[in-house]
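User: what does the whole thing look like in 3D?
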Amino acid sequence: MVSLEWRDLGKAYGRRVLFRDLGQRVDRGQVLVITGPNGSGKSTLLRVLLGLTRPSRGHVTYHLRGAELAPLLAHPYVGLVSPDLCLYDDLTAGENLAFFARVRGVPSAPERVKDLLDRIGLSARRDDRLGTYSSGMKQRVKYACALLHRPPFLFLDEPTANLDEEGIRLVEELLAEQRRDGLAIIATNEQREYTYGDTLLRLG
Amino acid sequence: MATLSSGWAEGAVAVLAKELRTELRGKVALSSLLLFSVTTLSVVSFTLAGVAPEARVSASFLWAILLFASLSGLSRAFVREEETGTALALRLSSHPQAVFLGKLLFNMALLAVLEVLVAVLFTAMLGVRVPHPDMLVVLLVVGNAAVSLPTTLTAAIVSRASATGALFGVLSFPLLLPPLILLAKGSTVALGALASWRELIPVFRLLISYTGALFVVGLFLFEYIWREG
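Assistant: Here's the predicted 3D structure for the full assembly of 433 residues, as structure tokens:
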């Protein structure tokens, strides 16, 4: 079983309440889209779900193969693509992916890295430093990095930012594949990306 | 699907290798360490004008130069990750202990390079005689861990603060003072003509105990520092 559930979730900074009383369950095969105006707490909600920011109240539970996991313990099973997440500009795309595969203990890492670089269409540039990449190419490498360990829980913050039409099609394909073995949570303001989800959660 | 528990020792080696690779390409910390140490040694050398200082003064110089040079470079270990936005990827993908050990090993490697350079220049430029080089080498090896450990831990604590420079100095001072006093005392013995290993044993005992205790505390404390957001 793969599912993610949160109850009575709230986050406030001092007197400023970002969101409160949120409850949701997302099961395997589903995609949840979180939307809302700027500053409504979409990215913060993602951070809370990932255990990177403490909620003011409520709790988040990951269900995976009969086990219940707190967000911090679920890190081996999550992938994240976000504008806040950067990779190493001084390393090449291949080195970046090899490094993250190694720290995550990904089996058959060289083959997996090669497959993903083929998939995102950057095999020919694998030995170029990330610092020389365009923002769209960096976004593609972020996808490869997030999917290295085949995470059942995929989090996407502004998933098509900086991507061209081909890149957007790639994201749509990856999301369709993610539905097969896991679930995805998307934070976005792009109308087009609302269609990726089965459920829409509006904040603010 | 892989898990983080599949070996944080492997993760630590990966973090160390990544740090070495990025440092060799950018040479940011290395040049900062080398510049500081060479500049300081030159100033001291001109001030002494060829008169070799006595053992106590030499020992103080040696560790003061090593301390300030290392503070200028070792504090970057975590700050760079936060500044470039890579900390989030590392936080999600690595076991905290793997990150701590990898960064610590990298800082130890940087300090080892610095120690070799400063020790050679120290004797050459200041005309300091080292009657017992074996003792000095052991002190530098033990001192490497005793200085790198508190520096790495403090660097992790301050990396998410805004005034990292000032905070780093304030927090690292009380942690670095005990080992530095011991290292300066030990070096005074090692640079003296009538030194014996027996005199150094209490110094080593205290240094190793302090470093061991700090290592264990650091290993557990780091998880909270690293994950707290």
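In plain terms: Chain B touches chain A at residues 1-7, 10-11, 14-15, 17-18, 21-22, 25-26, 84-86, 88-95, 98, 227, 229 (CB under 8 Å). Residues 1-5 of chain B have pLDDT under 50 and may be disordered.
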